[in-house]
Amino acid sequence: MSFFHIAALLPLNTLGHYIHWRWIDISVANFVVIVLMIVTFIGALLAPFPGRRRRKEQQ
Amino acid sequence: MSTDIDRQWTTRLRRRALKLLPPEKIMPDTQPTYVSSWIYVFGVTTMAALAVVIASGCLLALRGPQWWHTSSVGLFVNSLHLWSVEIFFFAMVIHLWGKYFMAAWRGGRALTWITGVVTFVVSVATAFTGYLSQSNFDSQWISTQAKDGINATGGGAYWNVLNMGQMLMWHIVLLPLAVVALVALHVLLVRIKGVVPPFEEPAKIRVGQ
Q: Which range marks the domain in which residue A35 is found?
């Protein structure tokens, strides 16, 4: 399977999809990235950091 | 009594630099417990992505637009350049959000915060000139749309987004130099001032205290 066959699985040569809500006008791709960033940010705050408890006990 | 060597600007500069940033401070063996946070991992991810951005950008500069638009390796390196920029901004914004809610400018760290924010703004300009330097219909569309916005600010007389040569030079020389210098300054300031402690700790805490 060539590079172009793999690329064809995800067609990027079509018109973009947009979300319209009142004055907000955003592409689906940008919206997905923003949602992913918010999810990652919350994850970064809540996920336990490896070895943190051990370091705290050592101090 | 000071000798001629003591008065040399190189001697004075070295002594001043060593006083400000002794080796144990510039590369500390330990950090306070509160530095064990994913927010700083995103700061380091930003720098790692920047290294890939610069390396892939150097490869693109070596071979030129025909290569990155037509050959499979060129397309791959072009995509690597784009996606490392995506990761750069993704990680940078998460790091910035985290530092904002930690009020990272506390305890005399205003300049650390400011260099971070200015790096973000300069990076946006670098990415923008990158879009203009693609040499395809996308860059034509973006430049013709952006010229009206830039002209409305009066900046168009000095910074012409339709001038491909000027935008390419800004993208591959001036702005990357500024980003790297700002990131280096930001990291040095983190080393000098230390990472901001949590709200319950005194804000003046520095590395090694």
A: 14-43
Q: What band does B15 get if pLDDT is binned at 50, 70 and 90?
A: very high
Residues in B closer than 8 angstroms to A43, CB to CB, are 38
Strand stretches in A6-55, DSSP E: 18-21, 24-27
The whole model's pTM is what?
Answer: 0.86
Hey, are the CB atoms on A55 and B98 less than 8 Å from each other? no
Which of B85, B82, B92, B91 lies closest to B115 in space, CA to CA?
A: B92
Q: Where are chain B's structural domains?
A: 35-91
Residue A50 domain flag: no
Q: Tell if the CB–CB gap between A41 and B98 is shorter than 8 Å.
A: yes
CA distance to partner chain A, nearest, from residue B38 (Å): 5
Nearest to B98 among A44, A49, A56 (CB): A44
- To the nearest whole Å, the CA of A13 is away from the closest chain B CA by 12
Buried b (16+ CB within 10 A) or exposed e, B157-185: eeebbeeeebbbebbbeebbebbeebbeb
Structural domain tally of chain A? 1
Task: Tell me whether residue A49 is in a domain.
Answer: no
Residues of B in Cβ contact (< 8 Å) with A45: 38-39, 98
8 Å CB contact of A37 and B94 = yes
Mean pLDDT is lowest, of A18-27, B29-38, B116-125, for: B29-38
| Regions of chain A with pLDDT less than 70 | 1, 3, 12, 52-59
Model pLDDT for residues B56-85, shown as the tens digit of each residue: 999 999 999 999 999 999 999 999 999 999
